[in-house]
Amino acid sequence: MLAPVGAHTALADLEREIAVPGGGPDRLRLVAPPFVPEVRLHLAEDAILWWARMEAAAGRSLPPPYWASVWAGGQALARHLLDHPELAAGRRVLDLAAGSGLVAIAAALAGADRVVANDIDPYAVAAVTVNARANRVDVAATGDDLLDATVPTDLLLAGDVLYEAALAERVLPFLQRAADRGVEVLVGDPDRGHLPPDRLEVVASYPVPTTEPSVDSPVRRVQVLRPR
Ligand SMILES: C[S@@+](CC[C@H](N)C(=O)[O-])C[C@H]1O[C@@H](n2cnc3c(N)ncnc32)[C@H](O)[C@@H]1O
């Protein structure tokens, strides 16, 4: 059982991590994702080592730091937005399961009117805040679970969120309900085995260089999809 971490604690932890000088694979570094070099993110060279060090310092379990890596699905979606800024320009955007905030930041750089990044991990909420700051864009970060809610937005973005069966079972109806209300929905997905064969159609496909943990191939084929 994870002890709950408050949003303020997580933000203070990340701000301290960023401020303290020093390098090494268990530290955060401000780097450009390989497929989205316009954006810079505070990422761990080795997220597992960062996690272990932070858990040892905190003396308790912490959620896996997905936000400390860039994911292939998010990179493809962010690339797609920057190459097609008209998708986000002037619109209200929600980035679901935002992790580092890469997709949200790309939407802001593409000219979105208002960007909300949502993730249930308080460290991801904090990462969005420090990463938006590093890229000098406005992104509001929220930590509520929105999957049973109706969120007013024009564009709903979901990068690499279909990575677990139980989560995909909640996310796919959430995306479909939004699409049925007229929200434009875009998903970035490298097919982790939970992509429904018939409910989404491919908009674009990208060869994404990946730095994800536990991935052997240096390039993954990633699709950007939308509900049919
Ligand atoms: C693989 S990461 C992808 C992060 C980012 N979208 C990207 O592509 O780089 C998946 C993220 O989903 C978040 N997540 C899991 N369940 C969630 C939920 N119910 N609502 C919002 N975020 C969730 C995790 O905390 C994690 O940060």
TrEMBL record:
One of its GO terms (molecular function) is protein-lysine N-methyltransferase activity. One of its GO terms (biological process) is methylation. Transmembrane segments: none annotated. InterPro entries: Ribosomal_L11_MeTrfase_PrmA, SAM-dependent_MTases_sf. Keywords: Methyltransferase, Transferase. It comes from the Bacteria. Pfam families: PrmA (PF06325). This is Predicted nicotinamide N-methyase. It comes from Micromonospora narathiwatensis.
